[in-house]
Amino acid sequence: VEELLFPDRRPRPMAAKQLLNLTATLGPFGLAFPAEPLSVQRLSCDQIRGRPFITGVHVSRLLAPIGTRDVYEFRVACGAASTRWSELGPSTLVWASSITAEANCPRPQSASGLLVTRAREDSPWWRAWSGGGHDHYAFGLLCGEQHSSVELLETRGSVEEQQTRRCPAGSFVSAIEVWRGFEPAGSYDLFEFRLDCSQMVDAFDGRGAASEASAGGAAGGGG
Fold this sequence. Notes:
By secondary structure, the protein is mainly beta. The chain is built from two helices and twelve strands; from the N terminus they run αββββββββββββα. Strands 1-12-11-2 form a four-stranded antiparallel sheet. A four-stranded antiparallel sheet has the order 5-4-3-6, with no helix packed on it.
């Protein structure tokens, strides 16, 4: 009777709140890279108000003929929102030409992995004085659980290495960490990457299942 007279007093099921749970950190990829990075930057969806997982990657590539330097800057999209561009450097290049490209997973998919290709284009003999050559990176964004890929930039010269990292089943990329390095002998501009893979879990489902899910995710979060 009391419930009929005072319907607001009826017990209501508690709504489940979802949290982002880190399941794995993948990387470094094993690409050619010097002993120490010159700069490191992490691009994450938790920096912006967007979707919890990365849905797109934008890359800006600058090529400088003098010194054959190559600069790559990155930003990631998390749904409709995007991070700021990275500032990996170097910041000053002479007569640099630039190209910007982006790859986005088809809606409603999120990125589940990343493919990185590095190619080397040696300088022609008449410009050998300017440096060793250019390092061309291309990227493939793996999308959804079926791992369909969308390509980003094209390689030139000879492909020297290619590496792929995929998140565990049910997990998606929530952050990308980029390292920049430089090898003076031959003027190699080199990059390495690390992925954070995460999944959404219920913070409370009435039976304490969320704590079990979090514990299981932490146990499976090796490098």
